[in-house]
Structures are given as structure tokens and as C-alpha cells.
Sequence to fold (1071 residues):
Amino acid sequence: MSSTASTITALAASLRDGSSSPRELLAQTLAHIDATNTRTHAYLRTTRELAERQADAAARTLRANPESAPPMCGIPVALKDVLCVDGVETTASSRVLGGFTPPYTGTAVQRLFDAGAVCVGKTNCDEFAMGSSNENSAFGPVGNPWDVERVPGGSSGGSAASVAAGDVPCALGSDTGGSIRQPASLCGVVGFKPTYGRVSRYGLIAFASSLDQIGPFARSVEDAAIVYSTIAGHDPRDSTSDPRAVDDPLLRLRDGVAGMRLGVPKEYFGMGIDPGVREAVEAALRVLEGLGATLHHVSLPSTEVGLSTYYIIAPAECSSNLARYDGVRFGLRVEHPALIDMYLRTRDQGFGPEVKRRVMLGTYALSSGYYDAYYRKAQKVRTLIADEFTRVFADVDALVSPTSPTAAFPMGDRDDPISMYMCDVVTLPVNLAGLPGISVPCGFAGGLPVGLQVIAPRFEDSRVFRVAHAYEQATEWHRARSPLAEAAA
Amino acid sequence: MLARLGLDEGERERFGAQLEAILDHISKLQQVDTSDVSEMAQVGELVNVMRDDVREPCLGAERALSNAPAGDGRHFVVGAIQENELDG
Amino acid sequence: MTQTAETPAIAALERYEAVIGLEVHAQLLTVSKMFCGCSAAYTDAAPNDNTCPVCLGLPGVLPVINRQAIEYTVRTALALECEIPEFTKFDRKNYFYPDLPKGYQISQYDTPLSRNGRIEFPVGGETVRCGITRVHLEEDTGTMHHAGDVLQSATQSFVDFNRSGVPLMEIVGEPDLRTAEHAREYLVRLRQLLMYIGVNDGNLEKGSFRCDANISLRSREAAELGTKVEVKNMNSFRAVHRALESEIERQAAVLDSGAVIQQETRGWVETRGRTVSQRSKEYAHDYRYFPEPDLPPLRLDSAFVERVRASLPELPPARARRFVDQYGLNAYDASVLTSTREDADTYEELVRLGVAAKLAANWLMGDVAALANEHRLGLRDSGLGIAGLSRLLGLLDSARINGPTAKELLTELYVRGGDPEAIVLERGLGQVSDETELEALVDAAIAANPVAATDFRGGKQQALGQLMRHVKEATGGRADMPLVNRLLRERLSR
Fold:
């Protein structure tokens, strides 16, 4: 069985009934990547050697304990290039990290490896995860498998495109303002952002520390839940990781939505939403109603200022997080005898324009004389936004909305930063409040995938999966294959 | 200067205009009433997250320096520092 | 205390008042670093060996607070009588320097671990009281050395991150000090206190205890404060004293000439004996402090604070007061004996073993201190040990040996050890204090030195010395000399 048409659950079965082996699966995957990557450029590099070692180890585990081996054992995965892997070049799609090979592996990735997953490569993304189209990669853009002239979304565009192209059944991305959910929506796959603090950030190259969270891409909600439960849980190396036990999202996955109260935030249907997207999402809401959920109109009035809040807090944190790229210990150095000029040249040539814009913006927002008006103000508005969610969740179990106001747009279409920032207008409030959110395919607009976003209160990650799974199983959208996946299969 | 980005004239102009527009856009924030609202520096209620004072293995100089753009096998090496040049 | 001659700085202080505040950075004696598990013993390792992804600031790493560092800082704050607010957090202090791996230092800005403390100490008979603004916690940077002697002419710098991330406590003092002498004594006392409570090793040369000063002068006539100058690069108590004296002199000369003081940072250059301008106000940093998003805040409840308070040893000033009350020592002896915790403990152990309080004080501060210094070996770890010394002083106290014999035995046994009583018996070192025996020796001495005897009888007191020496030599130095003295006088007055 080829991984291109399959889910983790199906592949796991084939690995146990002997119809496939980790090595065979790996070979198919790498061949598939060879066929698709020239069109998508989803991978910055494949990791054949590491993958072969891992596949052989997985094969031994499966032979020894076929029943007790974790579901991820022998399953190929792709990792966004912001995730550190010992001995594997990790660049965050930035020239400033060219050639950087971490001497350690991050916690979430290590948990996947410990579960027997096979790392096939590092995926392209917006530089330092800053962007919504993957056009900010220093190593070139990523093509959307539904139309390679269009963007896959971002910043985890490569991971989303790889799953949509049928390369791998799952991949990891990171989500700071929508960077998993929005590309999942644009590529027609499932993308999940866990509750802040659920998945360790240790080993995730930081963009904005109080917003970043690692999460999975997959072709089904159940698969996303499997990957999530593999990587989630307390990590003593991440002080913001929550010590509470993670409840198994698979336990109540099939409990349905009958009797559930679902909130529909009216603000999430404004903000330049494309009519086709609105239509698809409204149809999805009717499906959920048909499954026994009740829909309730709710209001999140601070949504409009969410974007402003986000574009102060995220750049402020990033301006500090990116100070370490100075050419001293790793990565790019543009030599100059005077240290100051080495710094300036390295950072000038190492960072792309979007990164520079955000570093400047963040530096400004934190500088003396502007701190109160910008950073402190944004922190207060962040409180208001989080409080609004809390109030709404007193009345509803989950929120449903579009993931992105539009479907995939043509490359080069949005050269104005603000119009690009608008891509995340309904995803970033979720990061500001630290909530779990998912995007699940819910139809097409002009032949391009549309995603339904489901949001739940903090630590109710399982509820997100449950709602999304009920919807997914009631529709056929998740079975749709991108033209590129069909062609390569 | 604080961000140490080494922009040229053209970049400075282009970024200047873009930042102007972004700052104009985010100035909406000033209209929000935040009197009596506390600041949210991070999500969650965690406090007192600490580790025990226990030694763990280090990388050692060789691995520490494995990514160094310039080193002498023991140290990271950088160019001369001019007086005042790194302030701010 | 050593400054007796009138220096130009002291002369200047007749016209101006100096206003001095000190900032001390003290590394904490934790096993591991502030935010990672690397060993904090950075001087023991070859360059960059004590490093990991966290303290190298590699992409993707996160800090985790060392609980012991928090406890040591609270301990210090309590010893300095600070308030411990319930809420505290870490902040990022952003600036670029090659020895600062992340491009920011994790420090504390507006919510330090503690505030509003004080320290009191005597200077030349008066008690100086200095407020403590705050005690907070941060991480140390790496270290750099430069090819060539002078930073400015170096072409390359070499960076070592072994020190990066070592817990560093910053103790900010109020500008309550008025002379260079005050500043030096403040540092001596503060260092003593930190060592006493076991949080810092007090090594100025290696930089585990470092000091910067802020100093301004104001005219004795005018009330307004002068312009502040920051002085750095002082690596010893002597350097602090000299640097501040030199700075007082310099500022006074500038003010005398009618010019104004520039707000700036100046470095003390030992070889030139003066401070040199390093950086002026226009280059002032904007550190863009903001709350560290990678670290949840701390809420130190009163139970925790009280537990730390309970673990504090009796502090030197209180202990010295008790030594005066309990053992009848004078204030000076009490202060010397409580200057380190080990010395004070040793003293109390000796007394507990039965040595008279004053006798124990005299010997510890005198011969024992000299031997400890000579051999670089404290009494506690010496061959003789505290118990050995108590037996030796017991022999002296019960007049079984005399003073000189006790000193000889102490010197002999200090390093190699041994039972003083057994040696006294074995070598017959016991004091000769039998009156009949000594009377015979006194008679023999008078007989052998008739001229001296006549002289003494004629009123020449010094003549007695020759007679005493005779008896002393006759007993091999073991005679009870006060007794000999009495017997001689009795015999000669007849």
C-alpha cells in the first residue's frame, strides 16, 4: 500500500499484517517526494540516512512487539525546518542559519522518534515562520498541490503541501498566528494547533515565544489526534509546558456533536471573507446542525483589534528571539574585520525583508518612549481578547468559523504586508488566548480547498478533535485528493 | 540602529513607508479602553516552575564549536570591538 | 582604617560631599547554572567545555529556573533585611555583545526578588548605615579575551561561554556612602556576609564578587545633587578605594575650575592610577526590557520565605553581640572572631570543650591564626584539630605546662597532630612548680650570680632578669616563672 493514499491508521495496520514494511514505506515515500518536490518544493532536504536507520529500528520493534508498538512506529513524517534534529541541517528557511546543524533534538520530535516514526525530511516554510504564503522562504516558494501557481499558505506551507501532495501521511508544523491551520485550509488537509503549553517548544526555533505551538498536519482528524497524543505532554525543559496529564483524544473521538452548543462568532464571517469560502463554511455549519449540534450566534468584538495586538506582541518577541543570529556561534557570518560591521552585514544579508520588517517593528514597540503605547497596550488588549473567549465559552462548547477568509491565492498576489497579515485575522486570536484550534477540509471555493476552524477552551483539545471528526466523517471532503497527489500516485 | 540590521538607503526608505503603514494600521489599538485591565505577558496560570540544582552533561568544546563560523578549536573567534560600537 | 595621611581626596571632602552608591554582582554557589544543567564551576574547565545548547543560546532552546539560585537570593535578601514581594518575574534585557549568546540577558527589571534592605557596619568608630535598593537575580555572560594587550588595538577576540548562564545576583546599594573608606568597608562587610551565609565565594580576582560604583560630588553649600559618574573595572578592595579617591579628586578639580561633570562611565586603570572615560551619556543603552515569555512568574509565599529565614545562620553582627554578652569578650575581639562562620564556630566549639573564653579568643586570634595562615590550613582541618587545641590549652590553664611550652607544642603539633598530654609526660615537659625544688634552684642562682644579687638588693630591678634566666635554664625552660619571680624576691628581700 502506498502512503500517498493512506492514513496513519491504515498504514499501521499494513505494517502489522506484513503487507508492508518500514523500509518499503520509506522507499515509496522518497520516490513520491522525488516526483512531487520539483513541483511543490515542499522539502528543503530529505534525510534518507536518518530515515533508513529509523525504519530499520521500527522494523525491529514491529517484529518484536507488533501489538504493543506505538501507532507511529514505521510511519514516515516530515518536519518543518524550524524543528531541531541532532545532526540534520536546520535553517528555518533563513540564509542566516545556512549550514546550521543542531547538536540536539527537540522534545516533540524526539517523542515522535521514540514512538518509531521515520523522519523523511525537513520542509520549507516562511523564514522563521513569519508569513502566510510561504513566499518568505529564503530558499524559494512552495507550490500548492491543488494549483502549483498558487501559495500553500504559511508559514508551515511545506508541511501542508507535502501532506496534500501525498508524500507523507503526516507532518509537524508550528503555529504562531495560524501557521498550521491556514496552510491546512489552503491545502485541503487537517491541521491542529494544540493548547499553548500542551506540546513542548524545546527544539522549536522561536518566532514568538508566548504564541508558538507545535502541531500536526494529517489527512484525517484521527491521524492528527494520533500525532498530537504522541508529541503532547509535560516537558521539564520547557517551563511553559503544562504539567497536567493529557487526556487521550481518541477516547471520545467518536462521541459526536449531538447536544453540543456550537458558537458562530459573527466577526469571523466579516473581514473580507470570500463569498465562496463563506458558502462552504455555512454549509458545514448546517452539517453540524444535522448531526445534532445547536448553533449560537456569539460576538467577539475585540477580533478587529486582534490583528494589531498580534502585530505588536509577535514582532516584539521576535525582535528579541532573533538577536542571537549574530554570526558568532553558528550559521552565516559575513566577514568584516570590525565586529560591528560583521553583525550588520550578517544580519542584513542573512534576513529576508519580512523578518527585517518584524524585527524593526518589534524593536520599535519595545523601545523606551513607545513601550507603554505599543507593547504594554497590546498586552492589555490581549487580556481583553482572552477574556472574551472565556465569556463566550461559558455559553458554548466550541466555536466554528472559517479558517482563512480566502482560498489559496496566486503567488505574488499580495505584495503589501497588511493585506498578507489579514490572512490570519481569524486564526491569530486563538494564539493570543492560547486555545486549541483545528482546520478541517469543508469543501471548495473556485476549485480550491476551504477549511472549517473549530476552537475550544484551553485544555479541551479532545473536544476540538471530537467536533472536527464528527464533521469530517459526515462529509467526503477529506477523501478529495489534490491533482498532484493523483498524478504522482 | 537597535535592531542591527544594516539596511541600505533604498531598504530604509521602503521599510520606512511600510512600517509607517503598519503602525498606522495598528494604531487602532489606542482606541481600546484598557483602564483597569491587567497585562498578559503569557498564556496560562503556571507559576514557580523550577528545576533542582542538578548537574547534567555538557556538550564539550568540540561539539559546542561544531557550528562556529570561526574558531581556534577552543574558542569562538570574532573581530575587533571598537569603542562604543556595540552600545545600544 | 589604614588611611591616616591627609589625601587630596580627603581635603576635597571638606568642600564637597561625595555621594557614593555601589552595585555588586555576586555569583551564586550553585552546582549547576541558572537556566541549564551545565556545571557552574566554570573556572575548572577548559574553554567552552561547560556549555550546552541552552547556555550557548542555540536556536530552539529554553531556560528553566534553578530553584537553589532563587533560594540563595532570598537568603541574601533576608540577611540584608530586605522585603520579599510575593510576585516576581524575569525580564529580558536586550543588547548585543559577543559574550551574550542570546542577544539578551535574562534579568529582572521592575519586579526584583527583593527590595528595601540595609546593612550596617563600623568605620573608624562610627556606625555607617547603607540602604539596599534591591537584590535581584540574572545570568552571567561568557568571557572574552583579546589578541594583544589592549582592547582597542586587538584584531581578534576569543569568546568562552563556560561562564555564560552562571547565576549572578545583583545587589544595588543606596547612595548612602560618603567616602572611599565607607565604600571599601561596605564591600568588606557585604562580602563577609555572602560568604557567611554560603552563597558566594567572595573571590574578587576571579570575578565571582564584582563591584561598580556611582559617584557624584555636591558642594557643602548647595543642596542639589551633582552629576553621577559610573566607575568600573575595580578588581580589589584596594582598587575600589583608590579609584574612588582618585575620582573624588578629579571631580573636585573639575568643579573647582568652574566646569561641569559629564555623565559618563569611567574605567579604573590600575597602572595609571586614575579613571579613564569609557562611554558618555549619548551612548546610553535602551535595553528594551520586557517580561521573559519563556519563564512563568514566581509567587514566593510566606511559608517559603519563612523556611529560608529559618535556615539562615546567626549573622555576624548578632553573633558578635552575643559573644560580648555571653563570653565577656570586648567588641573588637568579638567582631574578629565572627568575621567568618568557620572561625566563629571554631571558637564556640573550643569554649564548649571547656577552654576559658578569653584564653580561647587570645590563642585563636594570635598563634593559631598565624599558623593557619602560614600553613594555609585552618585549625578544623589541621592535625591538631579543635579537640587537640582544647587539651593543649587545658594543660596550660591547669598550670601543668607554661606559656612558652604551650606555644612550642602548638607549633610542633599543628600540622602533624598528636596528643599533647602524652608528649608532655613522655618528654618531661611538665612545668616545675614545686616550691622546694625551685627554692633550691633560686639559692643556687643567687650563689652563682652574687653581683646581680647585690645590685638587686641595691635597688636595680633589671638585675633580677639574670637570676631568673639562671633558674629557667636550670629547668630546661619548664619552671613556673611567675613563681620563680616571687621566690627570688622573697629570698633577696630577707
User: Anything to note?
Assistant: The domain at 3-260+459-488 of chain A is CATH 3.90.1300.10 (Amidase signature (AS) enzymes). Residues 311 and 358 of chain A are 8 Å apart (CA to CA).
